Amino acid sequence: MRALPVGDRALLVEVSTDEEAQALHADLLRRRAEGSLSVREIVPAARTVLLDGLDDPAGLAARLTTSKLPPAPARAQEVVEIRVRYDGPDLAAVAGHWDVSPQEVARIHAAAEFRVAFCGFAPGFGYLTGLPARYGVPRHATPRTTVPAGSVGLAGPYTGVYPRSSPGGWQLIGTTDAVLWDHARVPAALLSPGTPVRFVPVES
């Protein structure tokens, strides 16, 4: 673990894997909730966690880098179910990468237990982990100029759902009517770091 100063009151903590980033994020949230850590924002990413609004960044950096990272605790959070039609334009290509049929891609994907590792790219977009490493797929060499909202895609080890129409290079395997970001909803984002997610197949 390495802690790098960012300005006067922030730290960027680097770890080796996304699992460690999730465990660190959970531990920092726990510390803040119990009052042993004063911090304004805790923002996880793939292999980093940013802490902003610290009173003593150097002191916290020293403590973090000399302590053992605990495993991520089991979460009792309710599972978010996302109904998906496995009808994406890249379904056959993903089936080729996996050496299975398109129907088997849908079965494998829907059977996985996903969790939001971190959020980014666009408001409401969560990077979900849960597929075994052997099912990682490459991004498109040339991104599409427009990916429709609700597209379910794969890239590397992650699954994601596009919350709005935007350019994108992920392999699109399905579509959903779920609303990932809604200003009128509290919270506006359907998904947040740590949220467990299950994809439920529906007929096209």
Automatic annotation (TrEMBL):
One Pfam match: CT_C_D
SMART domains per the UniProt record, alphabetical: AHS1 (SM00796)
Segments forming domain Carboxyltransferase: 1-191
Name of this chain's protein: Allophanate hydrolase subunit 1
UniProtKB keywords: ATP-binding, Hydrolase, Nucleotide-binding
Biological classification of the source: Bacteria, Bacillati, Actinomycetota, Actinomycetes, Kitasatosporales
Family annotation (SUPFAM superfamilies): Cyclophilin-like (SSF50891)
Domain of life, source organism: Bacteria
Single GO term (MF): hydrolase activity
